[in-house]
């Protein structure tokens, strides 16, 4: 039921000690279906991210060798369905693999996290932005490298506030995932003084009685607003929204200007070189989910290489206390938050052909780190596990 593949090795004697990273994915994850990836929704994965982990192992080969490992290896395991995830995790642990990157949706991350309780393992969530995983469903051995919904919403709200576009029209879809996006944006709007002029529901439907709910001109008529924030977890409605509103206003959220972990248009701090390395290996542009897997793998290597004698629990402690930081090619060393395991990081505000801004936006301050203006701070965290 499980498929293992994608092994990368560096030249070394056959008896050399390996540093092995597991990448756990789900066969029926619809986000990676051909029908979804071909549409290229801006806030969805562009494809499987094993290539990003391989690039990270190549990038950190010197650190591995300096710490006594002369080869790095990636083991990719794909569970056939949710029921197969505990078996997949157990299979990795039986191989002695304690460092595992999760390319899974939120429900699957929660299931694997529960299955790993009491075991010596370090899990890194690289593909689920849901805030609950950083709150009620958190765990001391679970870290996160993909920006959370709260971080994305804060980046958007900071941009709106800085531009003085504080009166947007809010368009929200009907799905539970859309409601999660709404909860995150509502929190951010209150935090940064954004006051939507109205909130209107959209719905894509073949029912003639509901066609007005999918009509951008009808949904954007009769109001004055600074911009349009569209919250569409699937991306189908948001895809057709720009340039179809009644007023000539910018679009934010699930299309238009989108808050991302990475963009091939980011051209500072060595980012183009990373994007080119990934493009060469994967045959496509690097996106946010790819970067999250890359930085997750890199963080695992850095934690192990910083103290080769440390066990996995000590490595987790070093990462969450900030004694191990990681270069994410975003202009500064990145560290994990002690209270919920989220990676602090700048968030890129991107559009189809470029980069508009990098959050935190200048002028938004924090007593410890301006990166903590994005997402849940220590005082407001819902994570009760130290």
Describe the structure.
With 386 residues, the protein is of the alpha/beta class. The protein folds into two domains: 3-147 and 262-345, Rossmann fold, CATH 3.40.50.2300; 150-260, Response regulator (Rossmann fold, 3-Layer(aba) Sandwich), CATH 3.40.50.2300. The protein is built from twelve helices and 15 strands. Helix 2 (50-59) runs parallel beside helix 11. The protein starts with a strand and ends in a 27-residue tail after the last strand. Residues 1-15 have low confidence and may be disordered.
The CATH superfamily title of the largest domain:
Response regulator
Instruction: State Rg.
Output: 21 Å
Helix residue percentage = 25-40%
Number of strands: 15
Q: Any idea how many domains? A: 2
Question: What is the CATH C level class of the largest domain, in words?
Answer: Alpha Beta
Low-confidence stretches: 1-15
CATH architecture of the largest domain: 3-Layer(aba) Sandwich
Distance between the termini: 35 Å
Question: Beta-sheet strand percentage?
Answer: 15-25%
Describe the biggest sheet?
6 strands, mixed
Shape: globular
SSE run: EEHHHEHEHEEHEHEHEHEEHHHEEEE
């Amino acid at each position: 039921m499980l498929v293992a593949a994608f092994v990368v090795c560096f030249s070394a004697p056959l008896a050399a000690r390996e540093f092995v990273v597991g990448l756990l994915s789900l066969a029926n994850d619809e986000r990676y279906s051909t029908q979804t990836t071909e549409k290229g929704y801006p806030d969805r994965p562009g494809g499987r991210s094993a290539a990003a982990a391989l690039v990270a192992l190549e990038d950190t080969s010197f650190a591995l060798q300096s710490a006594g490992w002369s080869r790095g290896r990636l083991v990719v395991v794909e569970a056939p369905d949710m029921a197969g995830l505990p078996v997949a995790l157990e299979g990795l642990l039986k191989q002695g693999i304690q460092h595992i990157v999760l390319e899974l949706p939120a429900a699957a991350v929660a299931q694997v996290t529960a299955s790993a309780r009491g075991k010596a393992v370090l899990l890194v969530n690289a593909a689920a932005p849901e805030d609950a995983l950083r709150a009620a469903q958190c765990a001391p051995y679970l870290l996160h490298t993909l920006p959370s919904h709260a971080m994305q919403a804060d980046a958007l709200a900071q941009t709106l506030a800085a531009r003085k576009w504080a009166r947007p029209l809010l368009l929200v879809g009907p799905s539970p995932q859309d409601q999660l996006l709404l909860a995150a944006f509502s929190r951010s709007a209150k935090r940064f003084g954004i006051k939507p002029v109205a909130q209107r529901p959209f719905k894509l439907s073949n029912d003639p009685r509901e066609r007005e709910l999918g009509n951008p001109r009808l949904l954007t008529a009769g109001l004055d607003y600074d911009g349009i924030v569209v919250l569409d977890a699937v991306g189908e409605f948001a895809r057709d929204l720009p340039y179809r509103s009644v007023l000539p206003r910018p679009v934010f959220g699930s299309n238009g200007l989108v808050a991302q972990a990475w963009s091939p248009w980011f051209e500072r701090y060595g980012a183009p070189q990373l994007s080119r390395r990934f493009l060469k290996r994967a045959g496509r542009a690097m996106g946010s989910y790819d970067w999250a897997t890359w930085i997750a793998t890199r963080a695992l290597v850095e934690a192990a290489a910083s103290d080769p004698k440390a066990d996995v629990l000590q490595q987790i402690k070093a990462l969450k206390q900030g004694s191990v930081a990681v270069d994410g090619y975003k202009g500064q060393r990145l560290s994990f938050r002690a209270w919920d395991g989220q990676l602090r990081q700048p968030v890129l505000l991107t559009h189809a052909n470029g980069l508009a801004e990098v959050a935190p936006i200048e002028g938004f301050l924090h007593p410890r780190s301006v990166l903590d203006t994005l997402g849940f701070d220590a005082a407001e965290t819902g994570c009760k596990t130290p």
